[in-house]
Amino acid sequence: MSKKKGLSKRECATARSTKAHTVSLEPSGKATNGGAGNGGHDRLDRSALNNSNEFYDVACKVMLVGDSGVGKTCLLVRFKDGAFLSGSFISTVGIDFRNKVVAVDDAKVKLQIWDTAGQERFRSVTHAYYRDAHALLLLYDITNRPSFENIRAWLTEIHEYAQQNVVIMLLGNKGDMTAERAVKKDEGERLAKEYGIPFMETSAKTGLNVELAFTAIAKELKHRVEKQPNDAKFRIQDYINSEKKKKSTCCG
Ligand SMILES: Nc1nc2c(ncn2[C@@H]2O[C@H](COP(=O)(O)OP(=O)(O)OP(=O)(O)O)[C@@H](O)[C@H]2O)c(=O)[nH]1
Ligand SMILES: [Mg+2]
């Protein structure tokens, strides 16, 4: 029994025809993931099966990218499990993914989050996955200046390999390490503004803005999929700013 439906290359997969439904993602991409390795496809197949009890309306692929050590894996673990991976740093080998369904307004958005290896030697593996991504979270480490200086190169790579309309968000991670800060917050803001992408500082350690980053992405993608011609445009940076404001007024 197959419940799988194909994914449009440009849009998230949607299903709205039945009340209770599950749409499994097409095994990454037979059709759309070109040169990606089979390992990823096999894992994706199994995951779709394991999650068949989870209902969702929209399914999207999100990729975490950025230099090695900036905290991509930790950010994903914080979001998925609410935990922080402290201790010795285990660099990701190749690529892996985790699924999480988030509630956005009246809909459930399934985020399939791909955690990539930042090390240069895995770059060609990562490139093959870009074109299926609906959103990219691009991270640097606020205590590591070179990781920030490499952001322009990452953006060039993204523009080369990803879909033209991919949602990009810049994240300055390790926001808890203020004593070791090597990149000012307004430098991150300025760079993001220059490229017209949303920005915030995060911390996988404390959880600062982690939920917000993924929820904002889910909201943006859901709006894109379900947008009616007369709907007001969803502005992701405005949403982030208003959520931050709400938090600061409610919780000091
Ligand atoms: N203080 C602090 N440490 C962090 C944070 N995020 C990650 N780290 C630490 O930074 C190191 C690298 O984190 P990872 O998440 O493994 O880095 P990565 O970007 O996945 O690295 P690659 O897999 O090599 O690409 C680990 O020792 C983490 O404990 C954070 O927000 N704050
Ligand atoms: Mg990693």
TrEMBL record:
Keyword Phosphoprotein: no
Listed cofactors: Mg(2+)
Reactions accelerated catalytically: GTP + H2O = GDP + phosphate + H(+)
Protein topology in the membrane: Lipid-anchor
Family matches, as Gene3D superfamilies: P-loop containing nucleotide triphosphate hydrolases
Region (Disordered): 1-44
GO process terms (BP): protein transport
Listed CDD domains: Rab26 (cd04112)
Listed name of the protein: small monomeric GTPase
Species whose genome carries this gene: Eptatretus burgeri
